[in-house]
Amino acid sequence: MPIIQSAKKRVRVAKRQAIENSRTKKSIRLALKKFQEAVASKKGVEEAQNDVQSALDTAVKKGVIEKNKAARKKSQVNAQAKAANGGKRTAASKPKAAAKKATAKKPAAKKPAAKKTTSKK
Description:
The protein is mainly α and 121 residues long. The chain has a domain at 5-84: CATH 1.20.58.110. The chain is built from 3 helices and no strands. It has helices at 5-41, 45-62, 67-84. Helix 1 packs antiparallel against helix 2 (45-62) and helix 2 packs antiparallel against helix 3. The chain is flat, with a radius of gyration of 27 Å. The N and C termini lie far apart (85 Å).
């Protein structure tokens, strides 16, 4: 058991973080399980795929899993979804259309400051 106050606090913080990390990992596992069931039944594959990708992105954002691991899992999920749909791409795996660039508006020209007139008496 730690004696120093900062070490005691680190134990408390680590315990809280471990609980939160396990929740995040559990959400990934549940999403993957639902995705596997959807692939087996070939119903609701796209929604389950979106849930898996969302759970993976959340875990990366929280620092629970590595970015490359999430990318690898997403790739595997996309391949399984594609195979489940008979080789057709799903909506979740389609590339997003290139957004049109908005023309940058020029900021309105500033009006010159009114000249102060000094009255000489």
